[in-house]
């Protein structure tokens, strides 16, 4: 019984940390969770994740480097960032409620998959050219700036575009590329 | 047989060319395999015995350093190709080009799991708000009456006032009514039109005039402005009859930038 209430308390604390934004970016670093929840925070997150699954949500771990092939070490987890994301899919109607138009989503899909195909970085000029095929010219610049502002893409001083933290947290890149390659067009 | 000086000069030129090539590959994201590491090492090795001065050794070190960056890029490339994420860039690009907007969006929705995040007020933002409030002048000071300057009164004709653009040729209300009619005709079945599609004109001065008249249409209740903040779009929705909005609901001012850059962007978009 004592053990149950111990975890119930920790789960509540984890929910507060994960759902509310504490910094400029959402999510919590592993070391922060360790400080607030104790060294057994991976177990607390595991229990919370099982609970969130019923609500179509999940805890997403984004590692600092590439995703480790085997079970991640505590050190890798401490450096990783944890987010609560949707587990299932949004319908086109729901995306409209979130403020995304079909054009915006298609543009984001094109930009991300093109950058993936170019090994994670591509000149902005090339991405703009690609987007101009599908979006009205005057929207291309506005949309790309919006993707950069929201953290999906990053741009360096040489006008190279990269995938940024939000893409790593929200987009299943393998699924995106596979589905794109499967299209019959 | 070239002299030692000539050989040195040639060596410096070749190292500089290697450095430039490596830099352009790195900065422009070109295929790193266009640099043949073995060739570069051979050149560096060939000229190394010639170097005597610190600047010459620096050039040699810089060439090695740039080559190391290229080898790192080559290694990343191989790593990427061996992952499940690798797809032929040309094939993928072709797929992107050929797939329709809606299908692309639907594919993306299957791979997209947006973050759940809630905004909350933080200690920092509260402190900022208190600082702002404390530095704010009282209303009585902010709304202090301006001291009016006394000037000599004179006489001006109506034509002079029209010329100076103080008076319009047409009565303003008539012009506004005509403009309102034009807006009603321009809206489609949805009963609304994009702000820029209505305000934008061939010249910037005409665009400004239309934006100016539109602001009066909204203020006087002839039309309303529908703002989609997240989509960064604005629509004009004309009313069938002018509405008196004063007192009916809380009125808000919406600043709209009609700069030359925005107008040019709209015009380019329209032509493209």
Describe the protein.
- The complex is a heterodimer of chains A (185) and B (272).
- Chain A has ten helices and six strands, in the order αβααβαβααβααββαα.
- By secondary structure, chain A is an alpha+beta fold.
- Chain A has a three-stranded antiparallel beta sheet with strand order 1-3-2. A three-stranded antiparallel beta sheet of chain A has the order 4-6-5.
- In chain A, α1 crosses α3 and α6 crosses α8.
- Chain B has 272 residues and is mostly helical.
- Chain B contains twelve helices and three strands.
- In chain B, β2 and β3 form a beta hairpin.
- In chain B, α1 runs parallel beside α3.
- The interface between A and B is large, with 71 and 52 residues.
Gyration radius from CA atoms of chain A, angstroms: 19 Å
Strand order of the largest sheet of chain A: 1-3-2
Unreliable stretches of chain B (pLDDT < 50, length at least 5) are none
Give the helix tally of chain A.
Answer: 10
Overall shape of chain A: it is elongated
Backbone structural class of chain A: alpha+beta
List keywords for this structure.
heterodimer; A: 185 residues; alpha+beta; three-stranded antiparallel β-sheet; 57% helix; B: 272 residues; mainly alpha; 3 strands; elongated
